[in-house]
Amino acid sequence: MDPLDKLEFSQARKKLHRTQQQLAELLGISLKAIHSYEQGWRPVPAHIERQIFFFLSKKNNDTSSSLPCWEVKQCGMKEECPAYEFSCGHLCWFICGTRCDCTEQLSAKEKIGICRSCDILKSLLE
Ligand code: SF4
Ligand code: SF4
Fold first, then answer.
1. How confident is the model at residue 10 (pLDDT cuts 50, 70, 90)?
2. I need a labelling partner for 1 at 20 to 30 A (CA). Which of 16, 47, 48, 116 fits?
3. What separation, in Å, do the N-terminal and C-terminal C-alpha atoms of the chain show?
4. Contact 52, 34 (CB under 8 A)
5. Are residues 9 and 37 in contact, defined by beta-carbon separation less than 8 angstroms?
6. Does the Cβ of 115 fall within 6 Å of ligand 2?
């Protein structure tokens, strides 16, 4: 799946209740870079996308009682998975080497593309 597009990026910023300047500060990047992502002039890099999802997930943790990935997916592989080992049932998309959906051998950039098709990550943008 493609990285966040300009509308999704802008939507995520609003969900985080940040102005463009405030989001630039939170991500440690320039205001110009934020403009570029929201105008669609530059693709959102994978490391920025991961930070956005990280902040969205922490925001959601405050307000939702969502279940960890192994319960949502009724996972039979959790005992072998680093997401379970490190108690990261809401951050499984952040961790490489997870055992589901063929993400085990993938780079962080490839993996986030697969995870973006998964309900666990999609729910953060809803
Ligand atoms: S990330 Fe790991 S624990 Fe979570 S559903 Fe996938 S295999 Fe199971
Ligand atoms: S596909 Fe990605 S987001 Fe979905 S459960 Fe597996 S690691 Fe988590």
1. very high
2. 16
3. 17
4. no
5. yes
6. yes
